[in-house]
Amino acid sequence: MSTSCATLPNSVKFELFGSKNLSTLHQSSKMNLHFLPRNRCGLSRRDFAFKGIVAAGASVMTSTVSAESSKAQGLEKLPYKPEGYNYWTWRDRKIHYVVEGEGSPIVLIHGFGASAFHWRYNIPELAKNYKVYAVDLLGFGWSEKALIDLGGFTALVAAASLEDQVKGVVLLNSAGQFGDASSATTESEENVLQKFILKPLKEAFQRVVLGFLFWQAKQPSRIESVLKSVYINAANVDDYLIDSITRPADDPNAGEVYYRLMTRFMSNQKKYTLDNVLSQLSCPLLLVWGDLDPWVGPAKALRIKEFYPNTSLVNLQAGHCPHDEVPELVNKALLDWLSNLTSAPSLQVL
């Protein structure tokens, strides 16, 4: 199903897509945003009128998504649609997104391996007061599995680069490492042996290993097992959530996307560090942290707050995905923080 920029109303295009647009850099946090050169829609820098919050992750366009009730928690949730929700084409690449509500815009961006559907319990609640966009980054979810290179730390990088348009950044159990000041940063040129023998052998080995890991990781039983290991309360690990992860992974290009993501990440670990990006940030930062996360514990949140004082921290008794495990608590934390931000004299972008 291919669409064009014309499928988005002008009000939406002027809100979200200017000369710097959403890209597909990835990170293991729950929020990602990036910007790109002028796109096919032909919007200029002046057209970028996006005034809201991105959570990693106001036109009058009506919602195309109706909410259904969550029996387990009494919350509204996004209904699961195997075919996806809305599509927009950027540089001949199909991008999937969900839009709901009216008011100042919030952009929700999923973490590694997930999709817009992972915000199923947050979109309906936030949409009562804001215009909520949830996008699938290129290569993830229902968006096209394009064979392009991807990067990381998108929400923080975008906020640092677009400081005059950013109101605040929210991170939920974000991965990423602080730099090691004692490590050497010098790079030597490749010699003939490295370039033509060792490097190809390394790449071949990586393809075999990462290919096997991807095949193993996309099995429904494996996905269910991993999710239940990082959700302290696994009640919300249901068939819909599992299908929202396994279905995109069946795309013929998904394995190649995974390979490029992982090799790019491994080769850029020294470049994309938390201290490097946070040192360029100027807007308020909110950390909503599941303290029982077996992957990224509360010590990471405390270190971020210590490094970047303009940080608010909300600690929750939850695992790696608090927005889906305890959505009612995450929604409250987001809405409380947003109400304080939007009461400021000038409203900027995240």
Give helix and strand order, one letter per element, not per position.
HEEEEEEHEHEHHHHHEHEHH
Structural class: alpha/beta
Helix content: 25-40%
Radius of gyration: 20 Å
Mean of all residue-level pLDDT scores: 76
Account of the 3D structure:
InterPro entries: AB_hydrolase_1, AB_hydrolase_fold. It comes from Buddleja alternifolia. By secondary structure, this protein is an alpha/beta fold. The protein is built from eleven helices and ten strands. The strands form two sheets. It has an eight-stranded mixed sheet, sandwiched between helices. A two-stranded antiparallel ribbon has the order 2-3. The chain starts with 9 loop residues before the first helix and ends in an 8-residue tail after the last helix.
Provide the fold topology:
Elements: H1 10-16, E1 53-55, E2 68-69, E3 76-77, E4 86-90, E5 93-100, E6 105-109, H2 123-126, E7 131-135, H3 154-161, E8 169-172, H4 192-217, H5 220-230, H6 239-249, H7 254-267, H8 274-278, E9 285-290, H9 298-307, E10 311-316, H10 322-325, H11 327-342
Parallel strand pairs: 1-6, 1-8, 6-7, 8-9, 9-10
Antiparallel strand pairs: 2-3, 4-5, 5-7
Helix pairs in contact: 4-7
Pfam family, one: Abhydrolase_6
Protein name: AB hydrolase-1 domain-containing protein
Organism: Buddleja alternifolia
A few lines on this structure:
This protein has 350 residues and is of the alpha/beta class. Helices cover 33% and strands 13% of the residues. It is globular, with a radius of gyration of 20 Å.
Give a quick set of tags describing it.
two-stranded antiparallel sheet, 350 residues, 8-stranded mixed β-sheet, 13% strand, 11 helices, alpha/beta, 10 strands
